[in-house]
Amino acid sequence: MTTFEASKGRHCHNAVSPLHSSVYFAPEPGDELAALGLERGAMVYLASRAAPLGTVDAGTVTATFYNFSHQHVQRHIPAAWTVTTPQKVLTARLRGADRTLQRLLGKEALTSTQMTEAAELALHATEACRREARPLYAANADLPVPEEPHLALWHAATLLREHRGDGHLAALAIAGLSGIQALVLHNATGTAPTSALFMRTRGWSAQQWDTARGQLRERGLLDEAGDLTQAGTALRGETEVLTDRLDAAPYDHLGPAATARLTELAGGFSRTLRAAGAFPAVHFGKG
Q1: Listed residue (242, 235, 206, 204) closest to 219, CA to CA
Q2: What's the angle, vertex CA 15, arms to CA 12 and CA 16, rounded to 5?
Q3: Mean of pLDDT values over 169-176
Q4: C-alpha–C-alpha distance, residues 199 and 158, integer Å
Q5: Cα 203 from Cα 84, distance rounded (Å)
């Protein structure tokens, strides 16, 4: 596969992924899951994303999520499964996604021919995803496809996101980056969530964050100011290229023209999401 093809796949992923990830910043999914008795915040997030795996323990969640503190995960999993069931969480998760997309995109977009076309293209791309060594993708792939086009697109976006994510974790492991080190390096770009948000949502302390930053400085990946060095930038680039290679199948299957069309359609919806405040700027940056 060529670098050009890889960049097209990544570009398409970047257009499609916000359709899934918008739910993590919206109140509706949290409301739906809290109504089941789950604690808002970490428990809601961990249970929602882990629910396709079934009643797993903390070890499985830590392994598949990669960049969360295991002690943090243990505070909420498997306790969540004593409150409710994964199936009820999945049902509530979909209701939350529905309400979120209805509010942020509006009825006209949800019922448009463009929405139906985007859902069909995204689902077609997922036909080439593989389950081997991709636990989060594989678990979500066993879920039924919703009938409504906007929820079918959200489901397909979830599959494509987790498929790429599972491959990305393999690339991070090959790069020799621990979960927290990967977060620190990502934050150093200035385009990722803030260090405060990463620490709060992933359960890392300021001391652990500083330790990881020091380890990255020792490897020559960060400078004294905490910015990426040339070596750090190169390692991130190598990791993304490997992730692209591991995530090529859906977009190769879709083909160049259809990939470009999905990028166009999903990109339009994602721009609408951003304009509607789906991703508050306060949560992003090096701070």
Answers
A1: 235
A2: 85
A3: 97
A4: 24
A5: 23
